[in-house]
Amino acid sequence: MGDKVKFEIEFVIQSSPQLLYQYISTPSGLSEWFADNVNSRGEIFNFIWDGAEESAKLLKRKSDEFVRFAWEENEDDSFFEMRIIVDEITKDVSLFITDFAEEDELEEAKMLWKNQISSLKQVLGST
Prior knowledge:
Blueprint: E1 4-12, H1 17-25, H2 27-31, E2 37-41, E3 44-49, E4 52-62, E5 66-71, E6 80-86, E7 93-102, H3 106-124
């Protein structure tokens, strides 16, 4: 397996930081847009897509600001983080994604996030 490359993408989302945080930090919120179903036992979140299950450990979180997960099967220090950023002047809310992907899967990984965030925006009623 090659080295993973860190990438970041920002999405403007019309939502309050508090509401958005519920959708990125709770199993019920994540089930609405990120995976078909999400269960958690303590720090371990189980994400289910089309019958396949992947587990991630919740590494860090700060209420209304960010969550950081690491996939259980990772053998490196990669993680994925969803950080809520509010522009101090315009009060625009953005979701800042940090993730890692293999060099040859970078565009695919970004596209996957774009599709996921598009689902999140639909759930939130954000355009």
